[in-house]
């Protein structure tokens, strides 16, 4: 192999995967926040429940990454 092809191969990025715990955190906390908002904010318009679910999913995403850095993946 020539030097040029070795440099090309070393520049290629290895694809990183998203750990399963991040998906569990995003879906789990998102769903939980939706259900809690559905119960607590029943008299308010329906989009507020969806917004709380999205906010919960974003919080769960970052909580999943924090869990992954602290404890590792769950599988």
Give structural notes.
The model has no long low-confidence stretch (mean pLDDT 85). This protein has 75 residues and is an all-alpha fold. The two termini are 39 Å apart. The protein has one domain.
What brief labels describe this structure?
mainly alpha; elongated; 75 residues
Shape: elongated
Q: How much helical structure, as a percent, in the residues?
A: over 70%
Distance between the termini: 39 Å
Note the main sheet.
none
Q: What's the rounded overall pLDDT mean?
A: 85
Number of domains: 1
| Model regions low in confidence, pLDDT < 50 over at least 5 residues | none
Count of DSSP E strands? 0
Rg over CA atoms: 20 Å
Helix/strand-derived category reads: mainly alpha
Strand content: under 5%
Count helical runs.
3
How do the helices and strands follow one another from N- to C-terminus?
HHH
In short:
With 75 residues, the protein is mainly alpha-helical. The protein has helices at residues 3-11, 20-40, 47-71.
Walk me through the topology:
Layout: H1 3-11, H2 20-40, H3 47-71
């Amino acid at each position: 192999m020539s030097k040029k092809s070795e440099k090309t191969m070393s520049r290629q990025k290895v694809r990183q995967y998203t750990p399963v715990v991040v998906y569990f955190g995003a879906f789990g906390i998102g769903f939980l926040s939706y259900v809690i908002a559905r119960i607590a904010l029943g008299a308010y318009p329906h989009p507020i429940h969806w917004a709380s679910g999205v906010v919960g999913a974003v919080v769960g995403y970052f909580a999943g990454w924090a869990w992954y850095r602290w404890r590792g993946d769950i599988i």
